[in-house]
Amino acid sequence: MSLSRVSETDALLIGRIRDGEEDAWQDLIDRYEGRLLAFVESRLRRRAHSEDVVQETFIGFLNSLPNYDGRRSLESYLFAICAYKLTDHLRREGRRPTLPLSSAGAGRSSSDTWELEGPARPASSLVRSGERRTLEEDALVEAIRQQIENWKTRGDWGKIQCVELLFVRGWANKDVASHLQISEQHVANYKHDFTNKLRGSVKNQQLCEEVFPELYTN
């Protein structure tokens, strides 16, 4: 129930911002600036630079507002943008971060810390924070739900069984084919169709590109 209330509050706030309500933007800043600043400052340890990153985060959100999907968690979306802006800031400085990207990493060995191995390392490998993982999970859950509902509506129960055996139970293609008494080629086709549909569905959710950058590569 609390998640529904939060979503409704976020939706109202976004609606006010889109309507150009004078106090709405300040309400957004008041609500999230402190948490974003704490997140960045715990990694940069420099107040002025942290404030710059948070400011860039809000600007990034404003620029992406026309594509923002109101079904997504506003907090997670802001933190995903913030993580990207933080990564970009560190890359510009040529720094090698040594702190875990999420607070859950406290106490881990040095091999689990967030390290920049070289200037060619893609940003996508550096921003898998808890906030980004939440966005990824929510997007995939929604994509899977849409595809399963689509197949149920069309009565494609065989495809649903096939996907369940492949991805939930982890069966090999040949075992699924034998169990369902279809060819391995059919199994491969269903698998390919399912992953392609998920890819398209996630991309259509119009998340910021930092969440699934692999969807936007040529």
Please describe what this structure looks like.
Keywords: Sigma factor, Transcription, Transcription regulation. Pfam families: Sigma70_r2. The protein has two domains: 121 residues, RNA polymerase sigma factor, region 2, helix turn helix motif (Rna Polymerase Sigma Factor, Chain: A), CATH 1.10.1740.10; 80 residues, Arc Repressor Mutant, subunit A, CATH 1.10.10. 65% of the residues lie in helices and 0% in strands. It is built from eight helices and no strands. The longest helix has 25 residues. The N terminus is likely disordered.
* Rg, nearest Å: 21 Å
- Termini gap: 41 Å
The shape, in one word, is: elongated
H/E element string? HHHHHHHH
Q: Give the CATH architecture of the largest domain.
A: Orthogonal Bundle
CATH class of the largest domain: Mainly Alpha
Query: Domains counted in the coordinates: how many?
Result: 2
Number of strands: 0
Taking pLDDT < 50 over at least 5 consecutive residues as the criterion, the unreliable ranges are 1-6, 96-128
Number of helices: 8
Helical/strand content category: mainly alpha
CATH topology of the largest domain: Rna Polymerase Sigma Factor, Chain: A
Tell me the major beta sheet.
none
CATH homolog superfamily of the largest domain? RNA polymerase sigma factor, region 2, helix turn helix motif
| Proportion of strand residues | under 5%
Helix content: 55-70%
Average residue-wise pLDDT: 75
Main features:
Rna Polymerase Sigma Factor, Chain: A; mainly alpha; Arc Repressor Mutant, subunit A; 8 helices; 218 residues
